Please model this.
Amino acid sequence: MSNVTERSVMMLGGRGAGKSTLLGSIFDQSATLENETGLRIKADQYSTGPLIQKVETMRAVTQQKLTDTVNPFEFPRRPNADKESFTFEIGTADQHARLDLTFVDMPGGWMSDDKPKLYDVAIKSHAAILAIDTVELMEQGSYPTEAMTELRNQPKQLRETVKFWLDHFLGDGKESGFLLLCIVPVKVETYLRSYSGDNKGTRNYAAVIDKIKEEYKEVLAELKKREKNVAAVITPIETLGNVIWDHYEPADMAYPKEFFRRVEGSTENGRKAFGYCPHNCDLPLRYILNFFLIQQIRSEVLEREPNKLESIIDSVVNYMTNLMQKIFPDFNRSKLEKILRPFSDVFSPERSLINAVWEFTNGADNHVVTVLQGERLLTRDKPLFHDFIKRIEK
Ligand SMILES: Nc1nc2c(ncn2[C@@H]2O[C@H](COP(=O)(O)OP(=O)(O)O)[C@@H](O)[C@H]2O)c(=O)[nH]1
Ligand SMILES: [Mg+2]
Model:
């Protein structure tokens, strides 16, 4: 295949937060959508096995009444044992073009230990995923903190990493990018739904959002400073479905064992709640691909209309003007050219691929998503898209 492009996505979040599992779930659910969207998603030969293994582990969890999901043999410190990156090959059945998207999932402990490696990933990534262990976020207070070794979320340390990333692309005088941070609460089933037949009281997802805003406020403040260039969204996913947190048990001098139990009954809208039932795992990928596609379209508009654009934006009448003001509110051609350049060829301009990406990203279940900032970097405009498609050689 000739038209293969490559991009990378930085994975943020502590060891054991659920990053690799999250990627397994994204892969597993997205790959089944080909008939619906035309987008074919595979993993490369080195990633398929480990990704499927993560999904199988999760499937097994839903078969037990009560499980301690942290495998004591897998978990203790082997910081370099984990696979570091997973590549998704994103294309179509006709195989004319493909985007290889590599998620760089750093081995545990990097947040404080291996700065150079981390920074090396940061400077290559225009999109990042932050996995938040929702159970730790919400339940940590119920357990003596000093007994919890190495917390998984570590929002304070994260600030430094995020700041480095933002400064690299957007620091003084060198605005050279648009960025997306996709915050993904995992192990969130417990708070996302009410299950009838379950006795732990009403679930409250709004409390999760509030808690993220509180615990990660320094990180969010860094993002806010770069609001014009950075989109940030919260996309919760249900890796397992129907499995909720039950309790912690001490595990001397180590992170407490966390027990999950499966619910048996039904969800609030009457769906039978039983067994493995992942939901919305494709959301982060849909948002990332949408972000890339929208920037590519914007960059093409800018390239195509070098002379007209300024006058369109200056004039005050038609649909085009409103649209242009929406997609380029702070129009400054030379600056925009520079910061849109990295996106001009994310997807080879090849109709079937671009169409499939549009379809895939169109299917996002937006009602569970919280857009924190940068909505215009994600805004889909149909006429503009069709215009863009028309211009692509067959
Ligand atoms: N109940 C539950 N457990 C999970 C979930 N995701 C991950 N885990 C557990 O957390 C452990 C660590 O996950 P992993 O993906 O390896 O974390 P990483 O270090 O961030 O890559 C796994 O062995 C699972 O047992 C989830 O969505 N629900
Ligand atoms: Mg991992």
About this structure: The longest strand covers residues 3-12. The chain has two domains: 3-281, 289-391.
